[in-house]
Automatic annotation (TrEMBL):
Name of the protein in its database record: DNA repair protein RadA
Motif mapping: RadA KNRFG motif: 253-257
Domain comment (free text): The middle region has homology to RecA with ATPase motifs including the RadA KNRFG motif, while the C-terminus is homologous to Lon protease.
Family: Belongs to the RecA family. RadA subfamily.
Region (Lon-protease-like) residue spans: 352-454
Taxonomic lineage: Bacteria, Pseudomonadati, Pseudomonadota, Alphaproteobacteria, Rhodobacterales
GO molecular function list: ATP binding; ATP-dependent DNA damage sensor activity; damaged DNA binding; peptidase activity; zinc ion binding
Annotated ATP binding sites: G96, D97, P98, G99, I100, G101, K102, S103
Amino acid sequence: MAKATKSFSCTACGASFNKWSGRCDGCGAWNTIVEDTPLSTGPASKSLGNKRGSGILLTDLSTEEAPPPRTHSGMDELDRVLGGGLVPASAILVGGDPGIGKSTLLLQAAARFSQAGLKTLYVSGEEASAQVRMRARRLGLGDAPVQLAAATNLRDILTTLETEQPQLVIIDSIQTMWADNVESAPGSVSQVRAAAHELTSFAKRKGVSVILVGHVTKDGQIAGPRVVEHMVDTVLYFEGERGHQFRILRAVKNRFGPADEIGVFEMTGSGLAEVTNPSALFLSERGEPSPGSVVFSGIEGTRPVLVEFQALVAPSPHAQARRSVVGWDGGRLAMILAVLEARCGIPFAGLDVYLNVAGGMKVQEPAADLAVAAALLSAREDAALPAECVVFGEISLSGALRPVGQTENRLKEAQKLGFSTAIAPTGGKAVGGNSLSLRQFGDLTEFVGDIFGA
Ligand code: TYD
Ligand code: MG
């Protein structure tokens, strides 16, 4: 028998090494390399199919083996983020800050899926079954046919799964799970990885869907090894600001649907309510048109969403002016400031710049460039944009405005919400059938001159 050798891996990127070092050669992170504990050689190490070590020709796969259809929970916001319902035998990771509402969401989802006919088991490692039942009753789900279990020992859970044979199992949370063949504390990297591995491979073998809840660390990553993200089919993040009641479920990886899809919920006294018109919600706190405020018509996944950008520009009392941004990329803000200065001759030196996406929404699209530039200029010039106006478009380093995808959907959503004007790059798909007045510009200088008279 070969001598057991130690192995090490990086908790940030998952690279493997045969000796420890302070810095990972794979991703350059410091103090992320830990010793691996060998996984069990028990049932979980069996291969997935029954034909071990042989391949199957793609053309030999008969259509009878096509996967059974997806199950819909009936919560449209959740079903859409999953890519159109729950895929059988899929593994899903739901990450989020403590207290954001993960347990609430998944208990509601468990109830809905069980009512839709899936045999569902909800395993809580954090609360006793009685507490979960109490919560369910408070959420008005007391009569849903969900099975509850309070357990943290992985062996016990796998045994329960063998005997109960559910079709969907929810593990809340993966950090509380504990494999007795791994010699480290629950929540440690090796425990989380071992538990995730055992559960996902069990799920694939038995055709069970598994949803793992994962806590997120201060810097926003799912606590435990990144490799858990590689093990599952779908990674969802449940996000939200503490001061706001709405929550966003975002698909960051999905083997069965589009990534970047979002579902919007509102935390109420009786659990999470679906928000079917997020644009109306994000714009609900908007008052009269004011300098620095610009509405951006964005696309999140497959759906248009309007959000408000707010900017504040003020003389800086500091030697080095501040650049502060919430809900948008800081690097991208620096780029837009540089383009405004270099191409339009509008300096921001000596001015503090604050940029915020209202309502705690995070925007990632470059299509928001023009809205950001408009907000910055509007704040700097102390001039509000025309009322009822949406803005979108990408800015290139040359100062040219580039058309962005889904122009039509962006305009439709703006019109639906009562906007009358849209500012967009020239080009883009010709748009018909709406009554918005469209003002198009080919480059940033032209836009600045026309809108701000600068
Ligand atoms: P929870 O689902 O326990 O969060 P997580 O599992 O992500 O840690 O949610 C906890 C918060 O949600 C708590 O602060 C109270 C709030 N909440 C409501 O506002 N209404 C409700 O109906 C429920 C169940 C929770
Ligand atoms: Mg919880």
